Amino acid sequence: MEKGMIKVSVLYPNGEGKTFDIDYYCNKHVPMVAGLLGDSVKGATVEKGLGGGAPDSPATYAAMGNLYFSSMEEFGSSFGPNAAEIMADLPNFTNIEPTIQISEVMI
Known about the structure:
By secondary structure, the chain is of the alpha+beta class. About 30% of the residues lie in helices and about 25% in strands.
């Protein structure tokens, strides 16, 4: 990714009683989001949590999804009109309320 791009990270905190279907997320949710947001998405990654910083500790996050945009304007104009449909799909793969962070790529 290039310096100055906007990265939208959707983090799904791990924990007791929390569920996350990574197969649904990768094969259904992410393609749906990509279709809705179209060409404004310049890249995407999905990460599955494997462990924490200490040996044998659980991952802090069950999963993370990252979307990259050229600008805040592109993110806002593509995500805003589709937010309700995107969020409505969450119960199909998780019972976790995600944490969202918007960042600027620095290097």
